[in-house]
Amino acid sequence: MKFTLSWLKDHLDTEASVETIVDTLTRIGLEVESVENPAEKLAPFTIAHVLTAERHPQADKLQVLTVDAGSGETLQVVCGAPNARAGMKGVFGPPGAYVPGSDITLKVAAIRGVESRGMMCSVRELQLGEEHDGIITLPDDAPTGENYAAWAGLDDPVIDVSVTPNRQDCMGVHGIARDLAAAGLGTLKPIAVAPIAGAFPCPIEIRTDDPEGCPAFFGRVVRGVRNAASPDWLQQRLKAVGQRPISALVDMTNYVMLSYGRPLHVYDLAKLEGAIVARKAKPGEEVLALNGKTYRLDPSMTVIADDAGVHDIGGIMGGEHSSVTEATTDILIECAYFDPEGIARTGQKLALTSDARSRFERGVDPAFLDTGLAIATEMAIALAGGEPSEIVRAGEPPLGTKIVEYKPDRAKALGGVDVPADRQQAILARLGFDVTTGAAWRVTVPSWRRDVDGAADLVEEVIRIEGLDRVEATPLPRAPGVARPTATAEQLLERKVRRTAAARGLNEAVTWSFIAEAEAAPFGGSAWVLANPISEELKAMRPSLLPGLLAAARRNIARGADGIRLFEVGRRYLADGERPTLAFVLAGDRGPRHWRNGKAAGFDAYDAKAEALAILAAAGAPVDNLQALPGASGVYHPGRSARLSLGPKNALAEFGELHPAALKAFDLEGRTVVAAEIFLDAIPQKRGATGHMREAYRPPALQAVKRDFAFLVPLATQAETLLRAIRGADKQAIVGVSLFDVFTGQGVPEGEKSLAVEVILQPGEKSFTDEELKAISERIVAAATKVGARLRD
Amino acid sequence: MSDLDQMSADLLGRIAGASDLAALESERVHALGKQGAITQLLKSLGGMSPEQRQEEGPRIHGLRERVTSAIAERKAALEAEALERRLATETLDMTLPAEPRLQGSVHPVSQVMDELAEIFADLGFSVATGPEIEDDWHNFTALNIPESHPARAMHDTFYFPEDEGGERKMLLRTHTSPVQIRTMVKEKPPIYIIAPGRTYRSDSDATHTPMFHQVEGLVIDRGIHLGHLKWTLETFLKAFFERDDIVLRLRPSYFPFTEPSVEVDVGYSIEKGKRVIGGSEGWMEVLGSGMVHPKVIAACGLDPEEWQGFAFGCGIDRLAMLKYGMDDLRAFFDGDLRWLRHYGFSALDVPTLSGGVGA
């Protein structure tokens, strides 16, 4: 909401400086976004009298002027404007002046050999308009030597205020003036408009057939108008706040709207046929609106129509057909009340914003229809002449009086500021509230404050005017003793896995929660696809964290990164919920090239397995019991990936090398990329409080014994099958089984591989005898044989 | 000089002159071997009279001991020399670079979330979470933002297609405030929570990304007022920025779910050309807050006559930027390793109250 200082002063009698006004506006909740005085940048420009104009000796299109700029000396100025002539008055910029429209600073210069001591300026050069067909021509009585901006009335700061959606009353200058007056910055000037009697009956029938969408439609005709351009003062005010002047009558409606927050509409009476009626639109009805676009309407929308069709999208935008022009002689002024919810819905459906909509949807003052119409009539006649008809009032605006019960001690109890009761009463009165004091006050809410309906709202009114700087910081009650831990098990788990991954050399990234639909496809697609995405790339809620990380890996490769170890902790969005997940992607070199290992090696699936298991271990998963089962999702290489599961159903993680097709989709073809996803909510958590006490420490009395075995197994046999069999051979004595060599080649028959295993045997009370050791070894070999292995000779 | 003295000097001289371990060994054999000089002397003791033995015995044994220890000393010396010679040949280029350690990192957003949890734990606030795919009721209606409210349009909401009945509109939460609702519906006051998490708005430019992080704070208790809100925010910001000169400016504002509503500006000063929180050379908007609207409390099934409190919301990404100096929000979500290493945190930088929450 923009307005100028002089405009404000039409409504507020104040001596306050613009600085005080601006500070106060922000302090009371009308945040000032900017203050700009157009005169400041035009300070050096003065009114000058052109004494002579001669042709430039070296250039046909230039003239050499002598100018009296009021300094007492005659200045020589070279000028290229065709309209420069001796005797005219114009705007002069001296050397040193900054010309805002052309971004140059003037200096004394020779132009084609003739010295020029300044410049006569055009409208565009001073950023006062777009015209550039000549220099500004001022009336002959313009005072030579005076500051141009001040003379032209441009010394009027423009204040831009951000009005919050609850304050429709401040979408007009008068409402802002009221708030400032309440804050002690002067006196609100009363609205002085006398009812204007109609000279004849209204010649057109006005009705509302939609009392829900348009409960009140007031109007009157003005006959015999002459709709020319509006006067300079009006044009200047509208231009100052960014509105384009159109014609006197249209400018009048905008001026009343900006001054009082009261939107109006003016129709060319000659273009209307039959009665003018507020009604619901008919299915498929269309209207060409004033913005030049055609809108298709539906029966949920309120329109103003005559016998021929729709003339106005009620309360949002007028129609082109019945709009006033310079040829208009008779007008109908509409001053209506539209239902805010209806306006909001219609505006959203049509994706149409307008100054009228933003006011009606916030709820204009329902008690202001007669006054608004009177102001409009008075101004229309003042600007365009004519004589008014009687007023027609169709329907009734919703005028229900709201009374709020209020206890003044609420200001302290809720707002934290102790404001004496009489002071609170005064503040509310200045804001237009009517207070009846008593044990509990009865406060009548003014018709323009639709946003106020409870005691909390009144507390806000009181303390914002009193000043929030009076709120004293008050410590919260504090439980005695040391603060208790607050993190939940899930939060602790996320912290542990995040810091474990970082400690293992992975870099945490945060990637978008939404991805392209195609990227979700290998994971079974996305269960949640946005209806209004910002782009196709950010459309589907991710069913996996990998697409985001792979895209990040690709960007890093494009930037020349050699080794990429990215991880993310975040949610997967599935049909049945949001699942906490840690994912990582390893691509490029496992480590940098180094003199100890020669060339850099790439990652393989076992790197992914190692990281996954380390993170799972940190998360408290029973990693020793996990099985690597086939069946990881389709982004993985089917033969080089697995699910880490507790039993066949409960997968805690997936890991592996990525499928070449997936790599192709992410522009990572020809590289080995490995990855894993750990499903944090699938990790079983220890139940119940176990306390901090650990089990007693009982190291074994005797040293463990190690025995090595080498077995030959068919190539297809999985190592885990053998290791599991060996572990089961003697559950008491065998405390560790580890695979330390896998070999194929010389000495190993075709189709077989050799697996070398170290077994750790722990004696109990007594050392093993040779016989016992022999027996255990035999049991191990027997167990291995059962799974198709044979001891290597 | 007796023969024995002569022999001793002779043997010790030879031992001292042995130039390597082999020569020393032959000297040992010469003196103490089966046929050695001293061995012969020891053998001769048998043929002596007791008196003679009494006199000669100690002298011969003494000689044997001197020679034995001289050999041991010489041996140690020769071994030390040999070791020194060997070590002199075993030098390595100690300037060769060691293998680099992989440098992992924690994202600044995660770090700041941990910092927030740590600070607010001390103030008695626990961390609450809620879904990011929300329904219309939790994100808007329960927060006193009815269907046609202009504030809805201001939220630039991402929607999912309506289900067949059109009953339950699902959307991406536009703020963390729905967690307030979920907490109040589920738990009995007093409630002291913060709720950090991802939030979404259909907005994208230099200072806005369609996904960002917010933290919500909520207190519902008896007798809570705006002064408590101010103290809480002041205390939090002082702890977060680790500065005592934090100055707050409260400005009246509007949020449908709070009444009164307050925008909070924090004073900043210019240090080395950058805006730094602290002091009051200028003001920047960092927080929206207010007293929870009675309608919101009632919508959650609590009695607004009995319970009141405050809520606040703040951008986590912005807090991180203000504290650690990043100037481009978009880089937060790009996954550029150079950026992650530059602005990220070590795994061991766990924020603690005793060690300070800043890293």
Automatic annotation (TrEMBL), chain A:
Span of domain FDX-ACB: 700-792
Record-linked HAMAP family: Phe_tRNA_synth_beta1
The TRNA-binding domain, residue ranges: 39-149
InterPro entries hit by this protein: aa-tRNA-synth_II/BPL/LPL, B3/B4_tRNA-bd, DNA-bd_dom_put_sf, Fdx_antiC-bd, Fdx_antiC-bd_sf, NA-bd_OB-fold, Phe-tRNA-ligase_IIc_bsu, Phe-tRNA-ligase_IIc_bsu_bact
UniProt catalytic activity: tRNA(Phe) + L-phenylalanine + ATP = L-phenylalanyl-tRNA(Phe) + AMP + diphosphate + H(+)
Species per Swiss-Prot/TrEMBL record: Sphingomonas parva
Cofactor note: Binds 2 magnesium ions per tetramer.
Cellular compartment(s): Cytoplasm
Protein name: Phenylalanine--tRNA ligase beta subunit
Single biological process term from Gene Ontology: phenylalanyl-tRNA aminoacylation
EC number: 6.1.1.20
PANTHER family: PHENYLALANINE--TRNA LIGASE BETA SUBUNIT (PTHR10947:SF0), PHENYLALANYL-TRNA SYNTHETASE BETA CHAIN AND LEUCINE-RICH REPEAT-CONTAINING PROTEIN 47 (PTHR10947)
Lineage: superkingdom: Bacteria
Gene3D superfamilies found in the cross-reference section: 3.30.56.10, Bira Bifunctional Protein, Domain 2, Ferrodoxin-fold anticodon-binding domain, Nucleic acid-binding proteins, Phenylalanyl-trna Synthetase, Chain B, domain 3
Molecular function GO labels: ATP binding; magnesium ion binding; phenylalanine-tRNA ligase activity; tRNA binding
PROSITE patterns: B5, FDX_ACB, TRBD
Gene Ontology cellular component annotations, sorted alphabetically: phenylalanine-tRNA ligase complex
Ribosomal protein recorded as keyword: no
Organism phylogeny: Bacteria, Pseudomonadati, Pseudomonadota, Alphaproteobacteria, Sphingomonadales
Automatic annotation (TrEMBL), chain B:
Family matches, as Pfam families: Phe_tRNA-synt_N, tRNA-synt_2d
Catalytic activity from the UniProt record: tRNA(Phe) + L-phenylalanine + ATP = L-phenylalanyl-tRNA(Phe) + AMP + diphosphate + H(+)
Alphabetic keyword roster: Aminoacyl-tRNA synthetase, ATP-binding, Cytoplasm, Ligase, Magnesium, Metal-binding, Nucleotide-binding, Protein biosynthesis
Domain Aminoacyl-transfer RNA synthetases class-II family profile as annotated: residue spans: 110-351
EC number: 6.1.1.20
Residues that bind Mg(2+): 259
Gene3D superfamilies to which the protein is assigned, alphabetical: Bira Bifunctional Protein, Domain 2 (3.30.930.10)
First-tier enzyme category under EC: ligase
Family: Belongs to the class-II aminoacyl-tRNA synthetase family. Phe-tRNA synthetase alpha subunit type 1 subfamily.
HAMAP family noted in UniProt: Phe_tRNA_synth_alpha1 (MF_00281)
Name of the protein described by the UniProt record: Phenylalanine--tRNA ligase alpha subunit
Taxonomic classification: Bacteria, Pseudomonadati, Pseudomonadota, Alphaproteobacteria, Sphingomonadales
Gene field: pheS
